[in-house]
Amino acid sequence: MDFKKIADQVKDAAENLKEKAEAKIKEAREALDKDHDNIPDALEGLTEKAKALAGQAQEKAKALAEQAEGKAKEVAGKAKEKFDQAMGKGAGDGEKKG
Predict the structure, then answer these.
(1) Could you read off the pLDDT of 55-96 as tens digits, one per residue?
(2) Are 33 and 40 in contact (CB under 8 A)?
(3) Whole-angstrom Cα distance, residue 96 to residue 88?
(4) Fewest CB within 10 angstroms: 2, 14, 43, 50, which?
């Protein structure tokens, strides 16, 4: 056997191996991305879940902020009542103590 023939056989084997690898890669891509949008379907599912969870968290945060605002107003009102009482405004006569 001469070197050219050996080199040609190695080249042919490498080309064959390359084609098989490309076929396997294509097969794996098709299995992972059935809708052919170049984004693996599992990743799309996770993205949708993350969006849903983010929306839920945002709604929960808004509800908690509204609760906190209501509680703050309630506490502020009570504090004002106490202050007014301490200053004599809530005693009914309208005069300040002291």
Answers:
(1) 999 999 999 999 999 999 999 999 999 999 999 875 555 555
(2) yes
(3) 5
(4) 2
